[in-house]
Amino acid sequence: ANIDRKLYWLAWSNSLYNGWAAQHTSPTPEAFLVYQATQAAIDIARGAATSTVPWHVELFEYGPDGVSRPFIPGQAGAVD
After folding, report:
1. What is 8-58 written as a DSSP string?
2. By the 8 A CB rule, do 20 and 70 touch?
3. For 19-69, how does the pLDDT look when each residue is reduced to its tens digit (9 = 90+)?
4. How many separate domains does the chain show?
5. For residue 9, which of 80, 48, 56, 62 has the smallest C-alpha distance?
6. Is 79 part of a structural domain of the chain?
7. Is residue 3 part of a domain?
8. Is 11 exposed, middle or buried (0-12, 13-18, 19+ CB in 10 A)?
9. Contact status, residue 54 vs residue 11, Cβ threshold 8 Å
10. Is the dihedral of CA 38, 40, 44, 46 positive or negative?
11. pTM of the model
């Protein structure tokens, strides 16, 4: 994708996102939410304990390469 301006959005996330994203080719925040919801449903169906990792709202951006990543102020490509 050729993006000629900054594009940002908010999504629910948690501390597990970066590790999960590193293992996937297209690690969108939406895919992570679906993955987490599916894991929780499977755990509930099996009677297993569910995760208690706290959730927070995180700001994401598309980089010049068209890849989605968490926004970190001061990092290359970020606008403070």
Report:
1. EEEEEEETTHHHHHHT-SS--HHHHHHHHHHHHHHHHHHTPPPP-PPEEEE
2. no
3. 999 999 888 889 999 999 999 999 999 999 877 789 999 999 887 777 788
4. 1
5. 62
6. no
7. no
8. middle
9. no
10. positive
11. 0.70
